[in-house]
Amino acid sequence: MTETAHAVSYVRSSEVYSADGSKIVGLETSGGRTSKGAEANPGFFSGFLTDPRIAASGLLAVADVAATRYYQPTLRSSLDPVVTGNGDRLRFESFSGCCGVYARLDILTDGLDGGEVGQGTTNVDVNTPLRIALSRIHANDPLYLRVGPDELAVTTLDGPLVEKKVPLPQRWLRGFAETQVIASGFDLRAEVPAADAARFLRSLPTRGRVPDLWVLPVGRTLRTTGGPAPGAVCLPGPSRLATLDRVLRHARTLRLYGPAVTAGSPPVASAWEVTLPGMRLTLMLSPQVSRGFSGEGAVLEALAADDVQADTDLISALLAWEPRIDVADLAAQAGLTTHRVRSALTRLGTAGRVGYDAAEAAYFHRELPYRVGQVELHNPRLRDARALVRAGAVTVDGETASVRSGDKVYLVDHRSAVMGCTCPWWAGHRGGRGPCKHALAVRMTTRGDN
């Protein structure tokens, strides 16, 4: 998967200057999108954080994930966290090198001390010098942070550091698209006090071949079990939670989110959220260590519908950098059903323009430099399904449809919510990674899509 380079230009170089007897880091920014439209040199935030040490630990946790491959580990990566200003908060997001772990640090209003939060999105390079500076932050150190669309600077008592923006991997775009759909199906499954959470997390096996675990709430604590059960949360690859150690000493509670499961359910994704003073750190784990979010297929149903494009254009025009997108309000404004609004938000998510916050059970607005629908170019199942429809390969007869693909014919049960198919993809995944190309082609045909 190739990366997309973003051109950056500045009116002048960033510099350190004095004002009113203080040293200030002045960062020059390149063009970006804000609530006022495109601006040549916008800014997001300039001010202090209420708890520098916790904020620094949270930023390092997000950077840890961006620099790690949990599946088939290799040398450390140099992937770059994304930062979004939502008017009342800052969100720092990243994916692991294998795209199987998503991390987000939300610095909320209570975590910001002075300075208005702007509205916009960019990615930032958190490299070794910046990581060293963050690791040296103490509780009483003033941490002055200024974030622009193309640069991040942290000023401590030791002096300024400025980090430049670099390309954002295409695989992250697909990860952003998938995680917002998957997380929207989560509910809060457990909440335990920090001390009990710390004991539980530190008791987890992290070395050798560890089988996939399931976690159940028991009173004020958690216990592991070997299989799924109602109320359980999936924990594939416990070592993927290790980065939470950076913030556990500051934690208030640990919250677990996941979809509803029953006995016999396959592995599913889950989210682990540490609540902190004025902040939240969330790790979202893919259903298996070997599976990256970029290939989960959760967006395919929404992308396959022809009429979603017009809805997407309308909803896009109504978004206003909301930290919490009210689906019912958008539906009323647009004159659409909530189902159609959610499908449009899913499509916007394929361009990284929508995320989902399980803690608030709400979507949020961000902007990444990708076109809506670009992810379709990188999704072979969707491309192949459209080709099958154009070739007239689908025949619908009662509850079963047949799809000719090459020299074979596959049968699809199109009346069920999860359409089964006789193809090898369905046999291998049983719907766990989205519909196969044959089921998508049948869905398009029965809806009359072109």
From TrEMBL:
Statement: the UniProt record of this protein carries the keyword Zinc-finger: yes
PROSITE patterns: ZF_SWIM (PS50966)
Residue stretches spanning the membrane: none
Record flagged with keyword Lipoprotein: no
Single annotated GO MF: zinc ion binding
The SWIM-type domain, residue ranges: 410-447
CDD domains (alphabetical): S4 (cd00165)
Top-rank lineage group of the source organism: Bacteria
Keywords annotated in UniProt: Metal-binding, Zinc, Zinc-finger
InterPro entries assigned to the protein according to its UniProt record, in alphabetical order: Znf_SWIM (IPR007527)
Pfam families linked: SWIM
UniProt protein name: SWIM zinc finger
